[in-house]
Every structure is written in C-alpha cells, then in structure tokens.
Specification:
Elements: E1 3-8, E2 12-14, H1 26-30, E3 33-41, E4 44-45, H2 48-62, H3 69-79, E5 88-95, E6 105-110, H4 115-122, E7 124-130, H5 149-160, E8 165-169, E9 175-178, E10 182-187, E11 190-194, H6 204-215, E12 219-223, H7 227-231, E13 235-240, E14 244-251, E15 254-255, H8 260-275
Parallel strand pairs: 7-8, 7-14, 11-12
Antiparallel strand pairs: 1-2, 1-6, 3-4, 3-5, 5-6, 8-9, 10-11, 10-13, 13-14, 14-15
Bound molecules: pyridoxal-5'-phosphate (PLP).
Length: 276
C-alpha cells in the first residue's frame, strides 16, 4: 500500500514513515484494534458514516474504548485533501491503547492499487478454503478487527495454489465470504449471497448492492448455500469497498462465465459514488 497521508489523534498530519503506535498498545500486542477500509471517489469518501457505524460496532465487540466518531471525522478531513486525482483508499484504525490508557486513532490515505482494474478486466480465480463459521460472540462474528492474520494467510495460500483469492466455506461446505470480500452469484434474475447470520462481515458494498439490485432487474436471496450451488451459477463475483465488484471466472478449477449482473452493478456503484 502506498500511503499518501497519515493523520493521528493528538498530533494531526504526520509523516507516514514516522512510528505512531506505542509499543504497549494492545492493538499491536494482541490485535485488539478495529479497522475500516473504504474508497474515496472524487475527493469524497463513499459511505463514511456506514463505515464509522461498523467501526463503532466492531470496537464494542472487542471491548475497546468507545469510538470517538468526531475525532475520526477530523482525521479524515485532514488526509482527504491529499487524495491524488480525487480517488484513493482510506483506512481507519481504532486501537485499544495501552492497558488502562487511551486508544489511538489513525486515518491513512493510500493509492488505489493498479492491479485491481487489471484483475477486473481479466476476471479473478479463487480456491475454496476451510473458514471459521463464527457464531459465539467471543469468536467475533462479523467483526472487522486487525486480527486479520488468518485472512492474510488464506490469501497467501490461494496465491501459492496459483489463484487470485480464497473463498471461505465452513466444515459443511457452506459458502461464507472471501478473505476481504463478500461473495455473490447469479442464476437467472436472482442474485444469491450468504446471509449475515453465518457470522460473515456485513459489507457496506453488500448493502449497497442490495439497494442497487432491484432497479437493475435482479432480486436478491440470502441464505446458507453449499459450494456446489456457487459452482453451478451463471456468473459469480465478489464485492468490497476497495476492490468494488470483481468477476470470479474460475473457482476450484471450475470455469464460470462472465455475466451482465457484475458489470451492471459495478456501473451502478460507480454512478452512486459519483453522485454523493
Ligand atoms: C472478511 C470481509 N468480508 C467482506 C468485506 C467487504 O466489506 P465492505 O464492502 O464493507 O468493504 C471485507 C472488507 O473489508 C472483509 O474484510
């Protein structure tokens, strides 16, 4: 990630190469921190308030001090002017701080990685890997904590197997989500996506697609679906704030066709982002 700007509570804008987290911050020592990643379009963050809502909920699930929304909004305001050509990625971090101490808040503005558009054009390949179906609250279902080492290890395993990304399925073969994405597929005019009660992350893009689908002529069905159903779909794609919609053209060696839903909804997302 190429960092364009960094702002930190209590200090404001700082040189991105400077250290900003205390060595005894529990975010660093135990992964007790929450984060969000979103896109900035034309200098404006897309659905910032929804991301701040999710950050607040994640922080509460991990038992972090309550997110101070205003502080984060101020940090965002500091880094935004540094968005190159108006488009960028924005990462927000809220840490536990040292035991009994105050949390740290960071806003990092970064370049949108070039590989995303290349991958969107050629379509992505994926492998299914066993993932955790988190149900009990201490397994942190749907929480975006910085304890993402498992997700990153799954992504590395996918690359080792020569594909772009990993899709988590539970021990019963039920499709969950990608390592940093939600998963969708289409049969006829119906879009299928795993339901949130499977313990997956409530993607902000997922919610946006739920809004966009009906006006694009698609109905959405949420549920617990076996991998075989995804492999038999007419098209499949992932959704996330940074990668947006990414067509999946191969899963576990099965080739999938490209289809109109991914393209139409990607256009709808961009249109929405341009008008906010
Ligand atoms: C595990 C996981 N699922 C889904 C998503 C997609 O969420 P969003 O659309 O809010 O970016 C992410 C994104 O960070 C994620 O990490």
């Amino acid at each position: 990630m190429t960092v364009l700007a960094l702002a930190v509570t209590g200090r404001g804008l700082v040189d991105p190469s400077e250290p900003v987290i205390r060595a005894d911050d529990e975010g660093l020592l135990r992964g007790r921190a929450a984060f969000e990643t979103l896109r900035v379009y034309g200098g404006r963050p897309f659905r910032l308030e929804e991301h701040l809502d999710r950050l607040t909920a994640s922080a509460a699930s991990i038992g972090l001090p309550a997110v101070e929304r205003r502080r984060l909004q101020v940090l965002v305001g500091l880094v935004l002017p540094k968005a190159e050509h108006g488009d960028a990625t924005l990462r927000l971090v809220w840490t536990a701080g040292p035991a009994g101490g105050v949390p740290s808040a960071l806003a990092l503005l970064g370049e949108v990685p070039d590989w995303i558009e290349t991958a969107r054009e050629r379509g992505a390949s994926a492998v299914s890997l066993l993932g955790l179906r988190a149900s009990a609250p201490w397994l942190l279902p749907g929480v975006k904590s910085t304890s993402y080492a498992v997700n990153m290890a799954a992504e590395a395993e996918a690359r080792r197997r020569g594909v772009d990304e990993a899709l988590f399925v539970d021990a019963d073969g039920i499709v969950l989500e990608g390592t940093v994405t939600n998963v969708w597929w289409r049969v006829g005019d119906t879009l299928f996506t795993p339901s949130l009660d499977l313990g997956i992350l409530a993607g902000v893009t997922r919610a946006t697609l739920m809004e966009l689908a009906p006006e694009s002529g698609y109905r959405v069905e949420e549920g617990a679906y076996p991998l075989a159903q995804l492999l038999a779909a007419e098209e499949a794609f992932t959704s996330s704030s940074v990668r947006e919609l990414m067509p999946l053209v191969e899963i576990d060696g099965t080739l999938l066709g490209r289809g109109p839903a991914c393209e139409t909804l990607q256009e709808g997302l961009r249109r929405l982002a341009a008008n906010v």
